[in-house]
Design a protein that fits this description.
Largest interface: A-B, 39 and 38 residues
Number of strands of chain B: 8
Number of domains of chain B: 1
Radius of gyration of chain A: 19 Å
Distance between the termini of chain B: 38 Å
Largest sheet of chain A: 9 strands, mixed
Oligomer: heterodimer
CATH superfamily of the largest domain in chain A: Thiolase/Chalcone synthase
CATH class of the largest domain in chain A: Alpha Beta
CATH topology of the largest domain in chain A: Peroxisomal Thiolase, Chain A, domain 1
Number of helices of chain A: 14
Number of domains of chain A: 2
Helix content of chain B: under 10%
Order of helices and strands of chain A: EHEHHEHEHHHHEEEHEHEHHHHEE
Shape of chain B: globular
Distance between the termini of chain A: 16 Å
Strand content of chain A: 15-25%
Structural class of chain A: alpha/beta
Strand order of the largest sheet of chain B: 6-5-4-7-8
Number of strands of chain A: 11
Helix content of chain A: 25-40%
Chain lengths: ~400, ~140
Amino acid sequence: MSNLKGKVAVIGIGEIPTGRYPETAAISYAIESAKMAIRDAGIKKDEIDYVLPTASLFSPAFNTELVTCRIVEELGLKNVKRNCQIFAGGSSSTCALEIAASLINSGGAKTILFVHADKLGTGVSLQGGIDLFSTAGISSEWEVPYGQHYSAIAALATTRYKYETGTTDEELASICVSNRKWAELNPNAFFRKPLTIDEVMASKMLSTPLRAKMSNMLFDGGAAFVITSAERSRDLSNKPVYLLGEGGAVTHFVYSQEPDVSRFGWAKAGKMAFEMAGIKPKDIDVAEIYDSYPIYQLIGFEELGFAERGQGGKMFLDGDTWPGGKVPCTTNGGMLSQGHTGAGGAVALLVETVRQLMGKAGDRQVKNARFALETATGGTYMDAQVTILGTEIP
Amino acid sequence: MDIPKKPNPVVNPWAKPFWDAAREGRLVYQRCKDCGTNIFYPRIACTNCFSDNLEWVQSSGKGTIYSYTVVESNCPSAFVGDLPFVIAIVKLQEKGVQMLSNIVGCDPKEVRCDMPVEVLFEKLTDDISLPKFKPIK
């Protein structure tokens, strides 16, 4: 177990609305988000001594600019010791948070800025996106030759999970509906019109049993956060959001080698995080569970202890996870409703976790949120990353 | 839309014996001669004990479907002409050996979890034959 509990805090967040911006350059999403996060933190920009941009997938040339310190120069940051990319696909935000926390706790850094920006909505074509995601992280020797791609990967997990638990397609569709209920209240979400189970079930079949409205769509977006020591955070205007627990488990590279596609590594990662934080699932006020497809949100929800295995679907169907429900889940609408921006899907979820704990979530604010759990996973659900954050140190 | 050519497996040098055997209609996997662990996909060293004292063993070619999906739309462009097609994870009878493949030789609607299947080989080029599976009738 790490000794980071209560040692660092997220102090500022920034995010542009997820959308389609064909006329604007991706760098502007990074700069706008970073400016917002630094202003939100209430610090001087030159207090930032470390910048951790994560990767942008739409353009290798743009990504190289992120690697070669463009954000530092564009923002005019004068005291940056290192700019270094941290990239773990969809897990990038959580991995960066844990690494940043260690850096701060060791004295290697004082105030760290993490930034994400990508242009997968208008920077690539629809088929280009499918083709990108039919090769990214998929083994070129053992899976690409069989037509493997991300919808099929989610479908394989869904088929086995349904077979073992008896969960229905309607229950899976209700996860999309639950996320939409939250997105209706989120000005940064792309899909904000009410959604019904019938609409999900009537949408085009992609890979059985996965339908089009059970699939995320790719958009442009950017988000950022600032993290510093717990000690420094107490002098600032925002309510500090402390890192309380973290756990992770890497389970595979090649998807077909995953020992259990109906569970993955969530139980192991969750146990680590809860033990470190010293709290239990029933203490969590907001569960920000990575979606991208409903099956992953459901598996994470159950494996982390918010429902018995096979019983979570009923909670999404019955409204327990909706605004006003007893286990508010994925309150920005997730990738299914806010939209998927590459590594940014989980950045948005982490930013939302902090937003809820700071009490800045507007119409979808969960009242008196003290403890929140956030998850992320990358590649073909290669890892399970769990973070517990809170406004007090239990 | 022009349909691009289907991607051939990008063969790692140490996996060449697997593809050589596949060309001859045999499904093989590695076994560690030091600790006995079955290894698939092919590795440079044993995934249990790091030994490089590995041997190639022929699989029964029989197993069961762990999970599957019928791809009906929005697939990689090279596979558009194959729609609908079945992608499955097959667990071979040999402990620890499982792989992605396509299920062929049946109506996709008949495919089920835990259905028994056996290997067959689909020739892609003179060098490469791809192992696929069909239901055992």
